[in-house]
Amino acid sequence: MNKLLLRQIKKAFGDENKVPRGLSSFFQIVSDAYDGFDQDRDLAARSFDLSSQELLEANQKIRAESERQKAILEALRAATAVLQPIESTNEWLTSKDEAIYLASSLKKLIEEQKQHERELQESKTRTEQEKAKAEAILQSIGDGVFAVDLNYKIMLMNSVAEQLSGFSFIETQGKYYKDIFQFVQEKNPESPYPLFVEEVIKTGMVKKLANHTLLVKRDQTKLPISDSAAPIKDDKGNIFGAIVVVRDASREREIERVKDEFILIAAHQLRTPLGSMRWIIEMLLSYKDTSPKAREKIELINKSNKRMIILVNDLLNVSRIDQGKVQNEPTITDVCEIIKAAALEMDAEAQKRKVSIDLRLDVNIPKIMIDPKRFADVIQNLLSNAVKYNVVGGKAVIVGMLVANYIRISVADDGIGIPKEDQERVFSKFYRAANAAHSDTTGSGLGLFVVKSYVEEWGGSVRFQSVEGKGSTFYLELPVNLKNANNSYFHVPTENPPQATFPS
Amino acid sequence: MKTEQRKFTKEKGWEIISDNNLKDIAQLVFVFGDTSLLKDPKNFNEVKSFYPNAHILSGSTAGEIIGAQVLDNSMVVTAVNFTNTPLQFAQTKIAKMEDSLLVGEALANALPKEGLVHVMVLSDGLHVNGTSLVKGLTGKLPKEVAVTGGLVGDQARFKETVVGLDGVPAQDIIAVVGFYGTHIKVGYGSMGGWDPFGPERLVTKSKANVLYELDGQSALELYKKYLGDQAKDLPASGLLFPLNLRLEGRKTGLVRTILSVSDEEGSMTFAGDIPEGSYVRLMKANFERLVDGAAGAASMSHEAFGSSSPELAILISCVGRKLVLKQRVEEEVESVQDKLGQTATMTGFYSYGEICPVTPAEKQCELHNQTMTITTFSES
User: Fold this and answer.
1) Distance between CA A87 and CA B256 in Å, rounded?
2) What is the interface pTM, i.e. ipTM, of the complex?
3) Which of A109, A319, A410, B131 is the most exposed place for a label (fewest CB within 10 A)?
4) Which fold has domain A331-479?
5) May I ask the CATH class of domain A141-248?
6) What is the pLDDT averaged over residues A48-72?
């Protein structure tokens, strides 16, 4: 009970126990109100004190600042008073003393001037020495280096860059860098090359370019290179240009090519015998008089054979992606139909694991221009993971939504999840998370790599959220007008205008 | 337009307040209530059985308003039958706060634009950046269409807010209603009633709606200093000192209210953006001005109607006002009723943010905090 109220009750009733029955709940409400008022008053008083104190401090600061300004003003006034006579006519030359004073002042001024000139000369020499040193370092670098100013005009370039481009520095100085260094993408030489130097100057961030870049030399021959660019800043941190390092990557690229070719040939060569084995296994399984024991063994061979076929196919896919040889045949596609078909295909496997597949697709998702086979690969990969790594009795939920001009598809499961330390690498080739490798599920570690490569090629993105032991959700975002769709914009209008709702 | 109301309390169950036989003909039902009551599917099904043909829009609250009464831990239900006004609905779920702008745009895109007069929005109160949501909505709606509504609440707990459209309310949902045609008249008004005090402070470190430093010093420490003993009740007690935000080059200030604090990061999250380089002042409550503010908002919302009276008023008032007014909270609702007249059916809730144009003349709406925001309706 509030102390003030208690005192008032004592005054009125003599004792708090003498309060008439039925009034005590009323007094409780009044007591709460009293407490509230007290709290408000304390807070108001406190904020008044603190705020006065703050204003007082601010006031003192302003006063101190104004004193300082006054002192500076005084000093300035004194200084201009000394100078004023020199500016005016010679009326002031009234006495000999003043003439002597003037002469000595002039002498002092001249001496000071000389001192300044000496210092300037010294600093000039120092700057030149520094410049020569920087020049020597630049020339001795094994990679091609050139720098551009804020207008993307070439400021300097070393001899390796001269060799790589086929132009001499004298010819290129002050020219737009793109007229000298023509970069193109190996896979797609016709499409415009990313404006990475421009981006470096705009963002101030160091930028390294993806592999598969070619430099078109003066004689129009093409040289595989790797390159990176960094901003040049003055001592105040202002960007005044960018430096670009270009490295001849023909040897690295050759090694990479040979490796890819080897994988492609090896995988191709493996496919034929695996196919024959499959045929023979199926034949063996069809014999009625095989003993149960032998049949069991043949089933084992059958399973391993299937796994190897999947692995070899995945390898071929990856190798095609690496070499930029994936076929792209976009047609007008109903992505919802493909998702439904993938779910149907997965149904048997899901029932085996008692996993239920739940589809929630927004009716507003339009048809888009996309390669249906490759889109199906992406969905099958994600859905098969959601089923394979799920718990018995778990759920795999696919949600499709139209968000602005993106189609967002999420695939969620209640499965084993991806451990935190593995999350960074799940999209890498041949990588399987530790808990996936230990589970009884087989996989090549290539599925998510394929998904990411395809989706990014279409100008989309893929990301995920996952908690180990709880499950994972993969989010796919595809622009309604895809990149590489051979058609800059394709949006099939729905027959009716979109109705207002997508209620759950 | 016809309306009828009922309410549910744990002590007395359902009580009918007014009855106009709207069971089968109500098109829109507003349900405002306590988070745990709204989340119970039994309660949703019950409301659905009262109005089987209506769209049901529900939101959790920091206090329910029905008539001139303010309740806690209850559900208030207002059913509306429009004679000549078509409605359209859309809802979506937000995955992360950064999507607020996109989600606002998607919702606006989902509403047909022909004949659209007004849009009302109810949004999750904790996981949405209200400023971005409003920007998204208004960016994709025709200029002459105004948006009003609010971020729903959860007492002074700031734990779980829920919204529902034709379903059991859940977290992260944002729902909109579009009103169409030439017969509906909509008015709106929004006013605060808080006074800035103390020095003006420069925002030196912030990111969207997260504030770190004022004048190079921790903003959280400043609040703790001012709150004294009541600092232990943060974030709720932070509502006693909202911020008056002045953007460089703008005369009118916006009020920003606190949603959560993080001791580890020394940061405070507000219901709307606090850009670096803007100026803020602490504000304090003034009882008379709060109540006058509510009456002022009512007068603004009345302007559109001329001499006639509105038939329905949705009141969305900030949880901060309720915390300050305490037992006097009903005074502000009564002052609204006085201005609108007894014919207006009133309902609404205490919120974590209000959405309304700054003045009735302009349609460009903003996220407000610490205000009473009123949307009034009538049909000709």
Assistant:
1) 59
2) 0.71
3) A109
4) Heat Shock Protein 90 (3.30.565)
5) alpha beta
6) 83
